[in-house]
Amino acid sequence: MSLNSSTFLNQESHQKLKRNFECLKNSQQQTTSSLQDNPLQNLQLASWEVLEKAQKSGRSKCPRCGSSRMFYCYSCYVPVETVPTKEIPVVKLPLKIDIIKHPNETDGKSTAVHAKLLAPEDVTIYTYPCIPDYEEKRHEIALIFPGSNSISVKDIILHLEKNVEKNVSCGNDDDSSAEPFLKKAKIETKEDRNLSEYKSNSRSEDTVLKKVIFIDSTWNQTNKIITDERLQGLLQIELKTRKTCFWRHQKGKPDTYLSTIEAIYYFLVDYHQEVLKESYKGQYDNLLFFFSFMYTLIKNAKNSAGKE
Ligand SMILES: [Zn+2]
């Protein structure tokens, strides 16, 4: 299907984005082609009005450390004075997220802080090597990392069910103890096929994740963190291939190397549909509230400079 502008114009979210574009652009420079080039255009986002105002007034003070920043303070993880917290959206996540940041990673370049700003209740940022010991909760935590043993998001349930099965078998000499879990797995698969929108009542607490860990660093630094003994033995999950929209895309890396906030967003969209078995209606789109605004600003600036 070709992505023509009339298709999008029928959609409410597009209308909202179009309005935002109109505010951002000075004159009649707006063209439908710039909209078509934007892969973030169908997101259901809160109004960018607060960010547009803040951008016009320039840098503002961080309420915690007093530093001069644009939109938010990347050291304190809070919005600046011209961006009132109550005017930025809050996103509720289905699980907790820990982000492990490499100390050498330039704070201002990281998008990890977006997650903390937009989902403050569910996101914690740690600076390596100060990270929690995940030992006891290992069975309900996963690490997002494309390693040789990593599994896809859609295989999470299967993996966790196997774990439950194994634990029961270990605690009980009776070999038949694993049988009910196998039967349950079969039933769930059938239900899922027949009713994709059906929220499974039989979904057990044991077959959902409580926490996922993301690593926020350059590729070379990631390899150092990933070998830390506290992160060994965790389930590793690999994301589907998607192209990044990040304007600070790492030189020499493929465009499928996502920024942290993109990785978090795409993981949650897949998790929602493939593990929670619920239909996705934009619940996590606002995680890209800052990202898509900044992406649009930079894209527009490039367009006006005639670089594209
Ligand atoms: Zn600050």
Strand fraction: 5-15%
User: What is the count of structural domains?
Assistant: 2
Question: Reading side by side through the largest sheet, how are the strands ordered?
Answer: 6-5-9-7-10-8
State the major sheet.
Answer: 6 strands, parallel
Distance between the termini: 25 Å
Radius of gyration: 22 Å
Round the mean pLDDT to the nearest integer and report it: 80
Count of alpha and pi helical runs: 10
Function: Catalyzes the formation of 3-(3-amino-3-carboxypropyl)uridine (acp3U) at position 20 in the D-loop of several cytoplasmic tRNAs (acp3U(20)).
Enzyme class: transferase
Subcellular location: Nucleus
Family: Belongs to the TDD superfamily. DTWD1 family.
Describe the SSE topology:
Layout: H1 5-9, H2 12-24, H3 32-36, H4 49-57, E1 60-61, E2 68-69, E3 72-73, E4 78-79, E5 96-101, H5 112-118, E6 123-127, E7 141-144, E8 151-152, H6 156-171, H7 179-194, E9 211-216, H8 219-226, E10 235-238, H9 260-274, H10 289-304
Parallel strand pairs: 5-6, 5-9, 7-9, 7-10, 8-10
Antiparallel strand pairs: 1-2, 3-4
The structure holds zinc ion.
The site of zinc ion has 7 residues, from loops.
In short:
With 308 residues, the chain is α/β, with parallel strands linked by helices.
What does it look like?
The chain has ten helices and ten strands. A six-stranded parallel beta sheet has the order 6-5-9-7-10-8, sandwiched between helices. The protein folds into two domains: 1-42, no CATH class; 91-308, no CATH class. With 308 residues, the chain is an alpha/beta fold. Bound molecules: zinc ion. Zinc ion is lined by residues 62, 64-65, 67, 73, 75-76. Keywords: Nucleus, S-adenosyl-L-methionine, Transferase, tRNA processing. Belongs to the TDD superfamily. DTWD1 family. InterPro entries: DTW, tRNA_Mod/Golgi_Maint. It is found in: Nucleus.
